[in-house]
Design brief:
Helix content: 40-55%
Structural class: mainly alpha
Shape: globular
Order of helices and strands: HEEHH
Distance between the termini: 17 Å
Number of strands: 2
Length: about 60
Amino acid sequence: MNHTPNILHDLELLVKALSRGNPESALRWTCKSVRNLAEELQAKNYSVSFRTICDLLELNRERN
């Protein structure tokens, strides 16, 4: 997947700020939809769709 180096970091900051549940668990909940997360990243000049957010969240989950 080709993306800018900071997008995973910026996405993690958005999700982390709104996460619920056990921080030690692999399963985390967020109050924002992937569409809202995409809109917030688009406001930071990322060219990203909600589907890409799904893929990035999955990639991040696999890494952890």
